[in-house]
Design a protein that fits this description.
The protein is α+β, with helices and mostly antiparallel strands. It is built from eight helices and seven strands, in the order αααβββαββββαααα. The protein has a seven-stranded antiparallel beta sheet with strand order 1-7-4-5-6-3-2.
Length: 269
């Protein structure tokens, strides 16, 4: 006697095989959730956070015990729980990084001085007092140019590098640090200065990338520069505000790389 099929059943479909495949897929996905939950448990322990342990362990037990037979509702709930825990962990890491930065700022040594703005070539600069310069050497653990620094000039924040040029260490004061700095030579300003240990990642401006692409010789020189010098050129161009200033300084940067002129306080790359 032929078994009567329900209207929704397909006589050509192997339902046993389909069910086995679905169970296999659910098993795989459930075990992936278990793996993620175990990683989350380990990560929370790193930050000494234990208030999620019981929930995480309960879901691990449920998923492992019924790995092939977790119903849709429980599976959706497990996924939502994992997503919530991932957000909690992300927030925890973000807070931890912020707290670490604040702790570092609290211990970061800052030095105050007054200095007269001078100029060499077309570049305004100030000389950092020798005793403070020695302290920056100690804080940074280096005496080789450039040394990343940060601070304030007349209570305005700046980020810059200390540069050694023509026998002297100089703190160059560009127009982003001090408005119209080339026209304020001879004035005396209040400075704070600290060694800046924060990583500096500067995306290369598109206009500079295009100029380098058009000049393979200059690009070859640029690619051979140490990373700090590449960042220095990228940052200088990136901080410029007007299109005219950007184009002019991109031309100067290319000329500098070709050995035709000075740039960013240097006579040669």
């Amino acid at each position: 006697m032929t078994q009567k099929l329900h209207p929704w059943e397909n006589p050509e479909q192997d339902y046993a095989r389909t069910l086995a495949k679905r169970r296999s897929e659910r098993r795989y996905r459930s075990l992936q959730l278990v793996k993620t939950l175990k990683i989350l448990l380990t990560e929370f322990k790193k930050y000494d956070v234990n208030n999620f342990n019981s929930e995480i362990l309960s879901w691990i037990d449920l998923l492992e015990d019924a790995v092939e037979y977790v119903d849709d509702e429980d599976f959706k709930s497990a996924k939502k729980f994992v997503s919530r825990m991932q957000r909690e962990l992300k927030n925890l890491k973000s807070k931890f990084i912020t707290d670490r930065k604040e702790d570092f700022k609290g211990t970061m040594k800052s030095y105050n001085f007054q200095a007269e703005l001078e100029i060499i070539g077309i570049n305004p600069f100030v000389a950092v007092p020798p005793d403070i310069l020695q302290k920056i050497f100690q804080d940074s653990g280096r005496e080789k140019s450039p040394i990343p620094i940060c601070g304030q000039i007349n209570e305005k924040n700046y980020q810059q590098n200390l540069m050694f040029f023509k026998g002297d260490w100089r703190l160059y004061v560009n127009t982003t640090m001090l408005k119209n700095s080339p026209k304020r030579i001879g004035e005396i300003f209040d400075f704070t200065i600290s060694y800046d240990s924060e990583p500096r990642i500067v995306k290369q401006p598109q206009v500079l990338s295009e100029a380098l692409a058009k000049n393979p010789e200059a690009k070859k020189v640029f690619d051979q520069l140490i990373p700090s010098k590449q960042v220095e050129i990228n940052r200088y161009i990136a901080r410029l505000k007007t299109e005219e200033a950007i184009k002019r300084n991109v031309r100067r940067a290319i000329g500098f790389l070709l050995g035709k002129n000075s740039f960013v306080g240097r006579d040669k790359p």
